[in-house]
Known about the structure:
Two copies of one chain form a homodimer.
Chain A: E1 2-7, H1 15-29, E2 33-38, H2 64-74, H3 79-90, E3 93-99, H4 107-116, E4 146-152, H5 169-182, E5 187-188, E6 192-194, H6 202-217, H7 230-234, E7 235-236, E8 241-242
Organism (chains A, B): Microvirgula aerodenitrificans
Protein name (chains A, B): NAD(P)H dehydrogenase
InterPro entries (chains A, B): Flavodoxin_fold (IPR003680), Flavoprotein-like_sf (IPR029039), NAD(P)H_dehydrogenase_qn (IPR051545)
Amino acid sequence: MNVLLVHAHPEPGSLNGALRDFSIKRLEAAGHHVQLSDLYAMNWKAVLDANDSTAPPAGTRFDPSLDSGRAFANGTQTADIAGEQDKLRWADAVILQFPLWWYSMPAILKGWVDRVYAHGFAYGVGEHSDHHWGDRFGEGTMAGKRAMLVVTAGGWASHYSPRGINGPIDDILFPIQHGILYYPGFDVLPPHVIYRTGRLDQDRFARACAALGQRLDTLATTAPLPFRRQNGGAYDIPALTLRPELAPGRHGFAIHLDQA
Amino acid sequence: MNVLLVHAHPEPGSLNGALRDFSIKRLEAAGHHVQLSDLYAMNWKAVLDANDSTAPPAGTRFDPSLDSGRAFANGTQTADIAGEQDKLRWADAVILQFPLWWYSMPAILKGWVDRVYAHGFAYGVGEHSDHHWGDRFGEGTMAGKRAMLVVTAGGWASHYSPRGINGPIDDILFPIQHGILYYPGFDVLPPHVIYRTGRLDQDRFARACAALGQRLDTLATTAPLPFRRQNGGAYDIPALTLRPELAPGRHGFAIHLDQA
């Protein structure tokens, strides 16, 4: 497979840097082709603004959505954005690897999403009607591709457990896994989370690599999270609420997984 | 009160820009003192890195947490970070106002959190022992201050309803409200969310301002979300799981609110 690894840590010699190097080696040894977007090393521009198009805003005001759509359609995106979109088109699988900072991704990676996910590319795709609300949540540009998060966290696993103070890790990651990855069509694999990384000695690092290696070895075969397709009949359109007969009486992130 | 408004939108003439101007006028008319951190206008540096200290990393490698703690303790933080911390110390209430991009804040605002929330300032504060796991989640540097999110979203309210496809808005915002605001001690007010902002005509804008104005008028008096205090006996330490007799048998973000 073609694998794109998007990596966001400021220190090449960090645990995250070591996991990045381990992943590339492991994937290449298995015969995969790997491209790396090492956002700090690339000095990635994190902030979406009017300079993301080589053409001026079409209106009197910059509109983040409309102007990104025009730049995408007219070929006036900056080279860094177009380059990342090319990598995404090339990839069969995408791995986002990052430390959990304040319960989300580092700003530089959020800015990769904000800027690379152009209107017409990652959203605003497909028919919008009273029975099809865009190609999204199960359809879209990334359909047929796989994606996986590899996340390091300083806290303990119990802090992220179902009754842990931080909230369950699956819920913390839902806006990323469902809202950023499943939205444009990726099949999203279960995340790989490494906890308590502040105290990772040689032995625990070896075990962390073994566990991550196992996930990389099965990247092509692991069953994705069973998120429900938006346009497959599970949701009322345009309200986009889950139909009452599915997960009846329940609410929250978990109802968007078909666990029947 | 002293109110800090942190604002993150690239276009001054946008709806978000108009809401920013409206908020400042409304708050000042009520006698509050307002400081504005208009992150795009300030050309805020979004990306946390070794340049956030005027001193070199203490070790051979840059450590985002340890080095931010050293810079904070030694007075070697960059002026932009120290300036925002001063604004936070000055404020009695903080408003974060932003468009919801990919189910979270724009990268520039995430980068404000990543960089301003230094170790020793927003985390790593207070005793860490087997009965007190740091001054956080109800205690900390921001204790006694109020915070509120003002968020614009292109989607419909139903899309963010309890059974909406995006997930409930309270769950989407939990990592910010609980993880970023309550963590260092803020009392967090219910969020103010404005939906379907792509089609806001003059009439709906007037109504949006009226509703926001009402929230600003009651900034000092609105009851905060009843998040549970970490060190008040509700959680087992160090596992930091909610004690079994509280919200028995339940799990997820909502159990961290004391709704008894």
